[in-house]
Amino acid sequence: MSRPEPTSTDVAQLAGVSQSAVSRAFTEGASISEAKRARVIEAAEQLGYRPNLIARSLITRRTGIIGLAVGDLSNPFYSQLIYKLSEKLQQRNFHLLLFTVPDRANSDDLLEDVINYRLDALVLTSTEVSSHLGARLQERGIPVVLINRTTEDTASSSVASDNEFGASEVARFLVKQGHRRLAYVAGIQNTSTNIERERGFLRALASVAGVTVQHISGDYDVHKSLSVARELFDGENAGPEAIFCANDMMALSLMDALRYNLNLRVPEDVSVVGYDNIEPAAFSAYQLTTYSQPIDEMVDAAVELIVERVSSPGSAPRQIRLRGELVVRASVGVRHPSSADTSAHPSSAASA
């Protein structure tokens, strides 16, 4: 016959303390002397006792579980972000429960089930919810924190890179390198990341004389790279001298299409810039110039927002914007030496 699982009562008897002292010993921040906590831990180890997290959640009204809804796991930026976020949350005694939202699906329909879970908070990245669902989550006491997304929902907190500033840095850099015929390959049109990057890029170019900008939809879809490349260069007019893609994945795929399908050289015939600074951007085959998101700082800020909203439910939501840096590599060349400023860009990193 199997032995019955030891209970908190067994631990209390062995340690010579009350049952409530056992509960406090396993609750971070609870009031209990170090000597008493040590006796409880020693007794628990002797008995092989593990605290029942479900039972504890009924008392504390916290589970230590943070829901994470993500819509795009194919982009290495998000896999890196999720790994770092999980690692940091575990250090704070929280754990992630992953919910995937298929591309272009209605996240509200899929996330309705999330409300039925006993979550301490819900994190959204590469997906969004409507103000209606946001209000329902708030009613249930589930705070919402967005990462790499911004929102007009004043009930949610968010942390993101300053997309508009970053894209404007890309625009100014390309102009300094002498490029005058530019193109912007957009992501999914209604996402905050694309809206802000497009706005920053176009606003920075609006007052520059002699600059033209083609706009083409890429939908953050690497499979569209060939059709995008052909649309940009299969015409009577000369194609762009430089292309800014709304993320690195599109930029890398576009570079392949330009080289191997259209026989164009990067950067001799056309320069290419991305956004995110994912690991493959530094590979020798690409050497992609890109705007690097401050992922470590974003994760740290997000964890602080999560802890703040969970520990102080009445705390006001906050929106945090962080600036990254332009990383200059070999995918951008000098187009018109006579008009280009070839000096180092003030915010650029050393070539990788």
UniProtKB/TrEMBL annotation:
SMART domains: HTH_LACI (SM00354). GO terms for molecular function: DNA-binding transcription factor activity; transcription cis-regulatory region binding. Residues 6-60 form the HTH lacI-type domain. Keywords: DNA-binding, Repressor, Transcription, Transcription regulation. It holds the Pfam family Peripla_BP_3. The keyword Transcription applies. The keyword Metal-binding does not apply. This is LacI family transcriptional regulator. It comes from Subtercola lobariae.
